[in-house]
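Support case: heme-A complex. Customer-provided input:
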Amino acid sequence: MAIVNETHTEHRNMQEHHGTARYWIVYGALLAFTLLTVITGRMHLPTFGLLLALVIATVKGTLVLLFFMHLIDHKGANRLVMGVSLLFVILMIAAPMADFATRFRGSNPPGSHVSDLKDLNFPEAQGDAIHGGSHDLKNPSTHP
Amino acid sequence: MTPSSSPTAEGVLPGHDDAGGHAEHHHHPNYLVDGTTVKSWLLTIDHKRIGLMFLASVLFFFLVGGVFALALRVELLTPGPTVMDAMTYNRAFTLHGLIMIFLFMIPAIPAAFGNFMVPLMLGAKDVAFPRLNLASFYIYVTGAVLMVWGMLNGGLDTGWTFYAPYSIHTTTTVAPVLFGAFVIGFSSIATGLNFIVTVHTMRAPGITWFKLPLFVWAIYATSCIQVLATPVIGLLTLLVVGENLFDFGLFDPARGGDPVLFQHLFWFYSHPAVYIMVLPAFGVMSEVVAAYSRKNIFGYRAVAYSSLGIAFVGFFAWGHHMFVSGQSTFDAGIFGVLTMLVGVFTAIKVFNWVGTVYKGAVDFRTPFAYFCGFLFFTVFGGMTGIAVGTVSLDVPWHDTYFVVAHFHFIMVGATIMAFLAAIHYWFPKMFGRMYHEGWGLVSAALIILGFNATFIPQFLLGNYGMPRRYYEYPERFQALNVASTAGATLLAFGFVIIAIYLTYALFYGRASGKNPWRSTGYEWVSESPPPTHNFVGPQPTFPEEPHYYLAPKKDEVKDV
Amino acid sequence: MSSAPAAHGAAPGPKFAEHFASLEVQNHAARLGMWLFLSTEILLFAGLFVCYACYRFLYPEAFAQASRHLDLTLGTVNTLVLITSSLTAALAVHYAKEAKNNLVAVMVGLTLLMAVGFLVIKGFEYSHKFHEGTLPGKHYHFAGLQLPGAPMYFTIYFLTTGLHALHVTIGMGVLGWMGLRALTQKSFGPNNYTGMELASMYWHLVDLVWIFLFPMLYLV
Amino acid sequence: MSDIANKILFLPERASTFADRVDVLHYFVVGTTMVMSAGVGLAALFFFFRYRRRVPNQTTEYVTPDLKTEFLFVSVPLVFFLAWFAIGFRDFTWVTTPPKDAMDVYVMGKQWMWKFAYPEGPNGVNVLHVPANRPVRLLITSRDVLHSFFVPAFRIKMDALPGRYTQVWFEATKPGTYQVLCTEYCGLSHSKMLAEVVVLAPEDFEEWLKEQQRGRLQGRQDALADTSLVPPVARMAEQGEKLAGSQGCLKCHTVDGSPHVGPTFLGLYDREEKLADGQTVRVDEAYITQSMMDPGAHLVVGYQNVMPTYQGKLQGPETAAIVEYLKTLRTANVREASPEGPAYDPIQ
Ligand code: HEA
Ligand code: HEA
Ligand code: CUA
Ligand SMILES: [Cu+2]
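Agent response - structure generated as follows:
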């Protein structure tokens, strides 16, 4: 039995023999990036700290995907699978976040920075973070 | 080249008059009689037998779900209590929704007909991972048992959407039912994964991507959704069970959680899931319309691409279930536009089906009768989908019977019509026997009529303002409710007739011959019923695209 | 069928299922199937990532403070342990291809050792939280941090790391099985290493998830 | 003209400015839906007859659409759909963005009733009074699970989220009484969670408001007087109150006098209770305890046997604490026992 469109690239790529050097180099890079992310993480960079950490994580992840998991040697279909799932994850995160960021402030969880309501579970922690109480509901706008 | 040059086109007619009677004509017994022990069925890895076992299970659950639907309709005959109390009613519609969706509709076409037909249509001996295929069936059974057991012992009263925080606080049985749904998810994933790999790696020489039968395209697109969406509902069911047992507070507003976030996650699966339910139906109908009008598909590529388009864009329309949930206006806008785009892909398909009949040679058989119903229901159901997708219009319509009518129009109107068409179209292929055409047409008419009578009043009820999931209702809604119940009775009648004549045909129907419809669909190239390994002799090749009726056919099978 | 693969290897050959066109196609099918499976795993975790992203967006302050209550040193050590185990898993595939079955077993053994180490360290971290009372949702009773959103952080912390630990455990099972095969059957070779390859892919995914969880939980 | 259309489509009376906008688009969309489904259906039917099969093995031309046809297939629906979206989204933004001068009313859903509170003072249960021809903004919340506030005649609907506020606004156009329905499934009596909006002419509304304020002041003084008489609550009762919340009693029983799934706890102790079997009992410690351990033994008339047994779930002292708590509810010591509900302050 045969199959159409048979190509041999994946087979050839996988069959091709490399030494172990490739793995060690990737390993080294992963260690270095881990170090980097811990150091920058300890600095608690104000706004883009988490972003930077995620960028580093993405680089590390890509290395693992491409070399440890051999995606670089595999066929297009396999790459497509990975690409599509990552795209979906990103969009799936983006839409609910956009929702929280743009909804009527009163509909957000009380005590969060996009809400003006008090969280009754933590009455003593209100402090200065919360301003105005429910009066801000008076502001009849949909957006914060 | 014409299809007639394919080596098996002039095959041997099975021509037997009882199951497997003359199977010994050729040394390859058909799959139905190749091993008759119970074990040979239960432990089979033959995709055809697994497909049949799925078919039997989904039919059983359709019956159960349908009986509960009738119970709901009976309860709604009068404004007050009729035959059950409120708690029972709430459990009944939850059970109806959950069974119809998870145990019937999602596996109905892909796991039953997809399993049977896809390998045949690819000229393959089996799916890529036959054992996984069998495992998928048993996982389904396990999940089904858990779910049904839970619903009988306590019963869940949350509706099939099990929205937080109600589902977190309800005193009814959440854990087994939702855990059952979680388990069934694995079955769905396994089947989808299997089909994707099968389509990638098992196509016979000659079947390039754009010579795939459209049913295969539809199943392929469906499988992509199954693989990508199902894990999310799996996680969500677990989280709700966890919340119910341990109070994590992830979706509980009393602990800072957000119930709207729950809805985002729920619909991230459940909106694409509606395309899991309808895309295979579209696939079936593409086959049926071509076969009975003896025409190539008008705009093959457009239909194929639109399946992928629906699968892709369909993922990002989920927020249209949440227009009045407290979701932001901005998100409502984004989801509103994307919802409209999905509609366009379906419109492309509809127009191309009509185009296929154009200049065709129509043979008005039972499956074709269902095609007619399907066409009307898809346009009406789909367009009412667009109507509720129109943001401001959804404000009055949301959670009223208008929505109930919309989704029954598509799920019953489109998908069940396709499911019935598939049963009738492929019955000879699967069992080598014919059913009574007259009864087929009569019951089709009855079902189409009964269907309209059931659900058109529900559109009006929705306009009138009757909310869904109502055990009792204000007096003024009664007339329309009675009409709907009457329609449902007619509908049920139709199903009973089908059940009777198909059961009869299964045992006493006359032999159908190899290809009673003279279809050029790839699956008809092998015997009917096919032998265990699908082909006798060398692997078939497919020189022409499926449903190619252009050249005069000198050596086609004469008659049945 | 008739066109049984020429690639059909030497004596302890791979299992060839006859419904495939060739061994090559069979291997591709196995890999594609694995990638699809991994993508379902990614979307499974994605559900929790969505929760994380949203609540972290809502309660940035609480998340930052709560994350200080994790032990960064233990977290970093665990990250290094997992990355190293990923290396040994990759090397196991490499040696499988070279038919060095004993080395495969050694590499798998090392991987498992690190996996156990990872879980033990995780266990220490968990028990510390149980003592402190930084537990999910209703069970949260840590007086030192009373901010809206803090219990949510720990809910997500326990759910994500718990799900991850479950995957570590499953991965250990799969790797262990392959290690046993290398030891007892000694059958891995240039034509027969797909089993090891898939097991290691699974392990790398577990690593991959942690690569993201680490900054998300420890470094906010 | 549009009245006839409304009859055919079973649309309810149109009594708000939003309803006018919605209905216009409604006709457009539903009209197109009917035309298109009939069109597609008829075209297909026509083809079925026109192109009947004449010989069994008939062959057919190989017809494929040209680019222009395909373009038409895509663009015609797209134009319609996008137009609907544009109009619909404009209206939706309109209805979710209340005008600045709108009058505020707080709406709280709870299983299974609606409560209304006006900034000016009066509260109401299940009846909302509003003036005609004046924008009213509803700030909607819930005390327990999701509900949804739906007034068919106004064509508005908005979910009530526990502990959060959502908003929607309307301007009623004519005085009258309009039904409110709950459209988000909320449990056992979801379908009974009905209320009314009474739209009054502006003058009548002012009048009503004044009357309410007088009455409310009176009520407040009574309440104050009552509370001052209440003896300090014993620790046991306090614990019982907590248990009643955490064990879920308050999901079915209220403490404010309104019936729920079960009878209210308010004034329960020492009451003569009519049972379903026709007998009456005096509610005492033993009866309350039995109700918790074996709820089916005595059914109160008018209620269903849905209360779960707490046998094995409550320990002796806990049961006693709950009994003590119920005993404190003998007086008019009404407070919103809302252990997990939202902050719901009637606005001064
Ligand atoms: C198989 C199932 C299925 C399918 C295929 C669809 C298809 C669609 N659905 Fe439906 N839907 C459900 C099942 C399904 N739905 C269910 C179960 C619910 C309720 C869930 C619950 O709450 O319990 C629901 C609810 C639902 C809602 C939420 C309503 C509410 O709760 O308020 C919305 C809102 O946008 C919606 C929209 C759509 C749209 C736009 C499509 C589109 O895909 C339709 C596309 C089709 C067409 C558009 C027809 C063809 C078009 C033409 C021929 C065009 C010609 C026109 C012109 C030229 C103008 N659906
Ligand atoms: C695939 C999905 C599916 C299908 C097929 C149906 C089919 C039907 N449904 Fe339902 N329905 C849902 C999915 C489905 N439904 C969902 C998801 C909900 C929402 C639940 C919720 O709110 O949570 C719902 C809710 C729902 C309601 C609203 C309840 C409420 O909100 O209060 C109603 C009311 O009329 C209803 C009625 C019906 C009717 C009359 C049918 C009829 O079409 C049924 C006809 C079928 C039969 C009568 C069975 C006959 C079968 C045989 C005789 C056997 C044949 C055997 C062989 C061939 C061997 N359904
Ligand atoms: Cu309140 Cu439904
Ligand atoms: Cu949808």
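Confidence is low (pLDDT under 50) at residues 220-234, 331-348 of chain D.

Case will auto-close in a few days if no follow-up is received.
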